[in-house]
Amino acid sequence: MSQSIIHSDNKITDLKLFAIIFGVMFAYLHPAGFNGSTLQTLEQWMNMTNHMFQGTNDFLFSYGPLFWMTGGTVAQYSEFSYWISLVFMSLVASLFWFYLMRLCGYFSAWFPFVVVVFLYLYQIIIPTNFFMLTPLLLVAWYECVRKNVLNSRTVVLLAVVTGMLFYIRFVYGMTAMLSIGAYLFSKSVIDKKIKATCLFVLFSLLAYFVFGLSIFHHFHNIKDYAIVNSQLSFGNAVDMTFDNVLGGNVWLAIFVIFAVTNLFLIINYPAMVLTFNILLLVLVKLGFGRADHYPGYFVLPVSVMVMVTCFHHQKWWRGVFAITICSLIYISSVPIVAGFLPPVPFYTHENFLVSPEDRAAEKYHDYLLPNDVTQLIGAKSVDVYPYNNEFLLANKLNYRHRPLFQNFMTLTPRLDKMNQAFFESEDKPDFVLWHASTFCQGQTCNSFEGFDRKYALNEDPLTSTAVMLNYHVVKHFYVNNKPVMLLQRNTDTRFFQPPVEDNHRATFGQWITIPYSADSLVKIFPVFKLTAFARFKNTFYRGDALYVHYLMANGEEKQYRLNILNSVSGVVASPHLYSFPFHGERVRKIKFTVSSDNYFAKDFSYAWDNIPLKGINIEPSVGERLSHIEYEGEATKNLCTGVIDSAKVSTENGEPEVSIQGWLALTATGLSSPDRVFIRGTDARGEEYFITTQTVTRGDVADSFKNNALQNSGYKSWFSLPATTGDNVLSLVALKDKKLYRCDNINYHYH
Fold it and tell me: Which positions, given as ranges, span the membrane (predicted)?
């Protein structure tokens, strides 16, 4: 019976086959895996796919406002929406398997079918394959079996479905439009008839507009949805990447797939050449742009795509299929990521007698805030930074999010400016909940470090600056041993504009001295020039790795990955903030490095700016310049003894720097070590300044004087010398029991 159904070209038998497949898919779609959560992931978009039903916020992201229909939501809005999504996904899955089985049955390609299923499609339910490849299978059915142009009604229907797919996930609509559109265009060139192509393009755009009107609360978001996705796609390819480099053999395997499949199509189905190659290019970019995506976004879908070489009655073409499968087996053997999770047994997953808000909160019980914090927020609006909106669902807060609600996905200046405009508008929320990274390991972690070895404040610089300028800290606390702080909206609105003039120049690898600021966040605004090669690489593959290096006052060097596109909007220079609320350590110098020599021009221009930050706490560090010292009394001059063991002046980068060390003992009441030692100097205006030093253990001094109290008499420091009008003298100043000791008798002259 199955054989007659498979080989039949009768609509009734086709309907029977489709019904059988639909029943299997409906039964197989496990409710346990049908919905999910963002626990242990960074997929916060899943918490927002119900915005179509809740509030007036529009959900603008690569996963669209209709993505709940695929089960991609943390808690289905209602039982009715649950059944809609279950039936819809069963229908989509059935279309994929129906066309694949009908094509394999028509050309007796069951062995290749079994090979692909055994190697790659054993999960049965693979939504990405269903949405991205069903249009290709439909094209193959009409080209290889029906051998005729689609009629106008079918073209219009496909166009309407394509328009809707954009709102499920933007890439699904794009691949459908490219797959079907490229095929219709090829047919119009071959047959010299453009009606079908024009109908498809016209009704796809019309459907996109009509569905947008019915989904979004705000008309302008129809355009903004497309803008956000274009920016996310570009930024994702440039900055959401790993440092690993795939071997040349992987690229050779991809080329083999490209070459032999094109050979088959050119000879047998030339109208499918453009469709296949466009889709292959998209999958190369999706799969290898961020290399850990290649199993799901390249190997799996391409294993189905190359089955087109089996859709021919001459069996010797199966050799081409064998070559492509061997190439895919090699590619999938590259050890980048682990395999796939096994399927979960079927069971009912949710109790719909409980509200979706309560069900979502139950999943995120680890994100409960202290009672005094939730009482302070009350019913007022709140956003979360950098990304864990699980806090807001767990505590049922009034969530008013910025346009791009994850800092690591605010990937381009245009997206960053959208967030900045939000926090500089009257629509900004009353509170912002700022938490440490998901990868923070405890209370002492660096609260401002992100993942992918990036520094959070540099990922979306305009967004974070707008938050810091328009909010102030009211509480900081810990949730599950991780730092969190609550910021409240200021009464006035402050606007930020990056400096226009970039009047400094530097080269990659060159240390740049950071201008001193007592109580502000110093930012550098570099203008990197991309080469033509870099622009080509960004468009068709991925960006390179850009790094920022910080030379701390104690000589330690810190390195972070830097977003290429957003760096023009400002990179934090000093202080290096590391704990809440805004506690940090001063940075002496900064430099930029890049992983290759042909991505950027050799040098770049830059500008400086200071961001006034209320509540900033800069930890005094070695080599820091102070304008005064706090003390309660002053001793007689020169009640001290000691030496400057060494003092070296260098002129790196054209400005004098000094490295100085020695020991100092106070002689007021016997020999004793000071509590702190400072180096005193005078600048060009005649104003004195004090340089902090690091205490050094000097057992040799203690042994020489046979006085153990001199163990901590050593000091050392390194710092930039300010401009002077002539000769300069450095002398020592010490603090002991809050009393100041001036040691002018121990000095160093330099020119």
Answer: 12-29, 80-101, 113-142, 154-185, 197-216, 248-266, 271-288, 294-312, 319-341
